[in-house]
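Q&A FORM
Asked by: J.P.
Topic: structure of CoA-binding protein

PROVIDED:
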Amino acid sequence: MYHKGIEGFPYFLGLRSLADIATRDDRVCVLNILGGESRQVTPTSHAFSGGNVVFGTSPGRGGQVLKTPVGDIPVFNNVREGLDAGHAFDTGVVYLPPSGVRDGVAELVRVNPGLRKIVIITEKISVHDAREIRAMAQANGIDIIGGNCLGVADSWNRVRIGGALGGDKPEESLLKGSVAIFSNSGGFTTTIAQYLGTAGWGTTTLVSSGKDVYIHYAAPDFAHAFGNDDRSKAAVLYAEPGGYYEQGIDWTKPVVACVVGRWKSKLTRAVGHAGAMAGTGDSAEDKERWFMEAFGVPGLFTPENPVVSAKGAVVTNIADIPAALTAVMALNGAAPDFAPRGDLALKPWVANDQGLRLPPELAMPAVTAPEPYAGQIAALGAQVGAVVARQNMKDKSGASVMDPKTQVTSVHGHSVLDLALEPLEATFALPLVHEIATENDRAILDVAVAAEVNLVGDPILVAADAAREAGNAPNAVMATAAAIVGPKRVERALGCTRALIGLFAHSGLRDGRDEEFDASGIVCDDATRALFLATEAEAADPRPEAMLAAIAARGGRSAFLKFLGGLGGRLSRDAILAAIATTIAWGPLMRKRISRLTAETLPWYLRLYGVMVGATIPGEHHRPGSLWGIPRDERFGQWTMADLCFLAMTGKKPTPEEALPLQMLVGLLISNGPGSISAQGAKGAVSADGPQTPARMQINKAMVGFLTHTGYSHGGNGYEGIAFLLEQFKETGLTDPADPAHGLDLKAMATAFAKRYRHEKKAAKELGAELRALPGVHHPVFKGKPINYDPRERFIAEYMARHGRYNVFHAFYRELVQALYEHEASPYVFCVNVDAVIAALLLALLWSDYQTGRLSERDLETAAFTVFLYGRMIGAAAEIDDHLNRGRNMDTRTPASACGFVV
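REPLIED BY: S.T.
REPLY: Here is the structure written out as tokens.
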């Protein structure tokens, strides 16, 4: 039977006025009341509306209740049970999944003759089901609102039915006034009401129409009810592309229409709201034109061009709605409903410019937030450094990530290809401050590490020499040294750092280099002062004065060193190391880029850097005041990290031409991602100590973990490459590897080897023997294409070509991979991998010393392994610090279910 509704409509419409949409007399039944969304929303709606929900349904959960602030709502298995229990209702709210909505509506209609309204919250209901729902409603004289909506609300009646209009505190947003709202967006329905409130406009009825393909209560229906509502003097419409609902409407009262979604006309499929993709003639531009014609305005309203008429205005930004409405209503002789409640100007509660100098229009001061947010923000402001949530870190890292396509690793957002071009000091600092260090910070870092390298008179040197004489590889020698740099060795330096951070944390200092900062208000008690000053036992140590002189000579600036200098006593080496570390860490710490724990442990890493580099130098070269014959003042005042590392490997200071390849090698080798063996060793050691109790963590032991997880396969491949190159070039008479006019026929050399290797490969196959691998050639990832490349090798090749540099060993490797393919020793052109780059660059650096006999093959082996360790030492520091901040106890342990037994 067809139910006749309002006269003049070609379909049933029972809602004659907006005042009838949500009233205090409505009694509500909620389908799927115990679902996730309803559990959150229904209690608030029920309480705000004075208890309008009589019962809900949830199949299989009958007898339960949904607790609300104004009493429990009973739950039944189905609608019939609720009605039989005496709970009458006239409005249904549907929270069912899309596939169940049609049957849910059918149940409501079938069992309740008194049903008058249904609000469908569910989104993405199929068009087929929506049509059947429409047919059922029309045949039975029922109004439907939705789907994909947030329900309806009435600010005069203080009622909300279905959904979350007004948010968790609807009384704060649903302010009684004279403006009705009809919106395709549920969330923006509330936002528009809040925006109107800032300009003094309250609301009457708010309808979230939804934006499924099929809108049941559409703009024409709203326009009729709006015209019959004496409370509503104006309306705001929020419209998205898709559908012709807004076309040709005769608006009888002023309207501001906000049309959005011009960008959606470029899409080929629906996004966001299911029906929000325009078809032909119903794009955002089309809807703007419909409204402009209805209102008699020639263009869009903007603050700069306020185009309005007495009938209305069209905007494209919801922030412009209050101003447009005020202008329209002024032409109608109407003022706002109440005094404005603020404005829509940006009012940041928190400001952090990350140290950038912003233009005035962007450098907005923070305002005090309302409670409880003001208290929370104050607590955050008092917090020093970042706080990172802990999680399982077994195969994860917050420090390094490898691009699965290029296999190039980044550390704290910086690709190792880029790091290869940075000074070593910058890469040594990066793992711990998460930023590329400034020139000032690099200079003082040089001094900090240089002060730790000379180990004369230290038991560390005795232990390292013993390990060396026992035939250990460089990693074991470095591990011996690192093992001794335990907590007591750094206890005072860490204490000084904690004290400096505590003293300056809330002083207002933003830049650790700012020596003009007024520190007169910082009070240092006697115990803290004593912590910074040298003891009588340290009187013979000349390094504190040498460090301060070197920093001054380099032009280094530090607010912390200046503060310590005013204490009136001789500073200890630990205090100076702490001041350097705090200077480097201060900016990132204040910007919350790093945690306080990272800043407080930085001296431990700096000391380990110096000791581990120093341990690679045989003990005979450590002398009081000099290292390998280089005086202390020169090393402290002039040398860089690259100089120190080159000295440790070769016994001499490099020229700038020699330092650059070493810098590039170390940069490329910093990390291979969290899954590499060396990274797992470091992470496992942190996990074993228990990162959730950081005071027990031994950073030196974690460094030992990295070192024990390196070896001739993972770390020593560079030497194998050097041994291979020596075999190819030993009888060639090569004098200068950097001279392109070397006179050698590299192609002929490569061809001869490729032919020999092909026969070797054939013989090994016949014998069932394992074929020897060619060091520096091939890679399990970069394979399968006709020509294969390792991006790290390509990076070096392109850099050298750009700067007119040449390396004969690198050039030979490139000829070799081509010859192997041409003479059928390989199925495609193998890549020259990064191990070959290590071998080629390092052998070129050391070639003249090797030719003269100054360096032996054993020295070359040690140098190749050591340069790998220098790079991975930096990467390990990144993983250790990251795991210490993020990890959980035992989180690198493999589950028993993932373990196997090999027979």
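FOLLOW-UP: Residues 270-278 have pLDDT under 50 and may be disordered.
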